[in-house]
């Protein structure tokens, strides 16, 4: 099984490009993922993981993810190689994203949502309007 779950901060805004053969959108970015343990007397260390998101997910990441934002990514590890113009072989290990989520704290998310609303109106993801309520008397199908 090849499954990766990461949570970290974007080190830069996603970079978008399109494939030459069928013009498919590809977004690439890097996550700084803190290591779980800190050695005594040392600063916390992070690993910098390259992420690639294709098509609709890549479009979502390029529109809504920004440098410094905390996000969660679920995907798979992929390795690939290529030869450059000088004949040097290059090796790359990256995560191909299959799912991506916002993971900022509530305060940061509210600030981001406020900025989003100021720019685009009240259509922020997760904002269903004031007429959406669930009371304890409602019959829910689950």
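-> sequence recovered:
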């Amino acid at each position: 099984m090849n499954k990766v779950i990461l949570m970290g901060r974007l080190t830069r805004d996603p970079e978008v490009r399109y494939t030459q053969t069928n013009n498919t959108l590809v977004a690439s970015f890097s996550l700084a993922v803190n290591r779980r343990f800190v050695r005594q007397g040392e600063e916390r260390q992070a690993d910098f993981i390259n992420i690639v998101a294709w098509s609709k997910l890549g479009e979502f990441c390029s529109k809504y993810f920004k440098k410094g934002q905390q996000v969660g990514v679920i995907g798979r590890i992929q390795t690939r190689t290529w030869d450059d113009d000088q004949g040097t072989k290059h090796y790359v290990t990256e995560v191909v994203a299959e799912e991506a989520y916002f993971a900022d704290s509530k305060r940061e998310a509210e600030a981001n949502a406020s900025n989003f609303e100021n720019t685009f109106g009240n259509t922020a993801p997760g904002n269903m309007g004031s007429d959406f309520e669930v009371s304890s008397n409602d019959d829910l199908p689950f």
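Residues 119-142 have pLDDT under 50 and may be disordered.
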